[in-house]
Design brief:
alpha/beta; Aldehyde Dehydrogenase, Chain A, domain 1; 2 domains; seven-stranded mixed beta sheet; globular
């Protein structure tokens, strides 16, 4: 049984962190290789501004080699031709190795992008392991169909792997969001070229190394880090890529649709931004739980979460109590060293992120909102010097049409909007270009069904937030993207539906 973080101290994790061997190559065609031009980029930790490693920076030529390797592995290699149970067994072996290296991967994530070690180990890696194991077990349990066309004919409906899949992943949940795409693609027999975020490339490379160690054949999982504006674009335009899955900003998502249109019309699946409304009504079954969850939801992962409940929509009858409660709980999320198991909120992911969050806060003040908690960078004596930390921040007096209420901050900044009734709550929640998620707190069963149906969001959490399971799909409406990660529905993104009609 795997050990847990219980009993480990900041000193224990720091000692382990100092022993990390950071990856220094690309993974292409089953080999650990240098980038073609030898270029690298400095990977700076947001924890204290130190150089973690120099990451190989791939080129367009490296993407071409990776796509060619994935194409050979798909067209001529064993992976799509394995019996599904063989893919299952190899994916389960891969999960075993991830489990064996759980401490190492958690530390990498914590140092790469600042996730608190307890969250990296206990939440992120738990989700990664569950995802690979779930899709591994699903690999040999999907059945094809026979259509009832009559006794003179036989009509077969089969699903076949789409081919080479480009996967472009972000830094905020670097291994989880990659697993949501790579695992189902692997399970059905596709091959993959991943372009990870610059801020989380080492952990992605390490995962590919473990896949090779598990026996995943060469060319099935290739990882090429580098500049998204160059490599991501080339992957999106590449005629050898049959489908592309992306998680990131709406702006970049639009570009990927353009790349598809300008190249081979590859299927392009987008999981984009969010500005989720979290509605608390006076008949919430447990107001203390609703308040605690609202605070946790916006400050978890330093607010760097596409589903973060960044708009708290609260009925005026309970507004004072809810606001006071959220303010009180914000104190629990004072920034801390991400390697300290007691830390609930670490740094932002980079200096660029800090500047962007500061810009949103400045705009909120210009629009007349009041920061009743926080609103500034944090450099207390309890965090390492030169880190990128920001205070938990709460704004009241937020207009539903203001920039703070409309734009995704991707930081620990909560916008509170007060409403007069249920109708206004739904109207405010839907007043967004995004539609990724929403929250609703009420004990009225009829109201649960009536209001949740009217919320234009891919996931509606009722009397909870961020709960989920691999059996249910995840994705958004409107500018939050298309397609779904998780569940059996994710397999549809990585398969082609074929009809074979046979006259007997």
């Amino acid at each position: 049984m795997a050990k847990t973080t219980a009993g480990k101290t900041l000193g224990d994790w720091t000692k382990q962190a100092n022993e990390i061997a950071w990856p220094s190559t690309l993974v292409v065609d089953g080999r650990l290789v240098e980038s073609q031009d030898g270029a690298t980029f400095a990977h700076i930790s947001p924890r204290e501004g130190s150089l973690l490693t120099n990451v190989p920076s791939g080129s367009v030529g490296d993407i071409d080699l990776a796509v060619a390797a994935a194409r050979r592995a798909f067209d001529d290699g064993p992976w799509p031709r394995f019996a599904p149970r063989v893919r299952k067994e190899l994916m389960l072996r891969f999960a075993e190795l991830i489990e064996a290296h759980r401490d190492e991967l958690a530390i990498m994530i914590s140092l790469e992008m600042g996730k608190p070690i307890d969250d990296a180990w206990g939440i992120e890696l738990r989700a990664v392991l569950a995802t690979y194991r779930w899709y591994a077990e699903l690999a040999d349990k999907e059945l094809d169909e026979i259509s009832p066309v009559g006794s003179d004919d036989l009509a077969l409906i089969t699903r076949e792997p789409v081919g080479v899949v480009g996967v472009v992943t972000p830094w905020n949940f670097p291994l989880t969001l990659a697993a949501w795409k790579i695992a189902p693609a692997m399970a059905v027999g596709c091959t993959i070229v991943q372009k990870p975020s610059d801020l989380s490339s080492p952990s992605a490379i390490r995962m590919a190394e473990l896949a090779l160690e598990a026996g995943i054949p060469a060319g099935v999982l290739n990882v090429v880090p580098g500049r998204g504006s160059v490599l991501g674009r080339h992957l999106g335009m590449h005629p050898g890529v049959d489908a592309l899955a992306f998680t990131g900003s709406t702006e970049v998502g639009r570009a990927y649709l353009e790349y598809s249109a300008r190249s081979n019309l590859k299927r392009t699946w987008l999981e984009l931004g969010g500005k989720s409304g979290n509605i608390i009504l006076p008949d919430a079954p447990d107001l203390d739980v609703a308040i605690a969850t609202a605070a946790w939801g916006i400050f978890f992962n330093s607010g760097q979460m596409c589903t973060a409940p960044s708009r708290l929509i609260v009925h005026r009858d309970i507004a004072d109590e809810v606001i006071a409660g959220v303010v009180a709980r914000a104190a629990d999320y004072r920034p801390g060293d991400p390697l300290d198991p007691e830390t609930k909120m670490g740094p932002l992911a980079s200096g660029t992120r800090l500047s962007e969050v500061e810009g949103h806060v400045r705009e909120a003040r210009e629009d007349g909102a009041e920061a009743i908690v926080g609103g500034s960078a944090y450099d207390g004596v309890d965090v390492p010097a030169n880190g990128v930390y920001f205070e938990p921040t709460i704004f009241t007096g937020v207009s539903p049409d203001s920039r703070l209420a409309q734009n995704e901050v991707f930081g620990p900044v909560l916008a509170i909007v007060t409403v007069n009734d249920d109708e206004e709550a739904i109207r405010v929640a839907n007043n967004s270009d995004y539609g990724l998620a929403a929250g609703l707190w009420t004990s009225d069963v009829s109201k649960v069904h009536r209001l949740s149906r009217r919320l234009r969001a891919g996931t509606v959490w009722v009397n909870c937030y961020e709960e989920g399971d691999l059996t249910v799909p995840f994705g958004g409406y409107k500018l939050s993207g298309n397609g779904r990660d998780k569940s059996r529905h994710a397999l549809e993104k990585y398969t082609e539906l074929k009809t074979t009609f046979i006259h007997l």
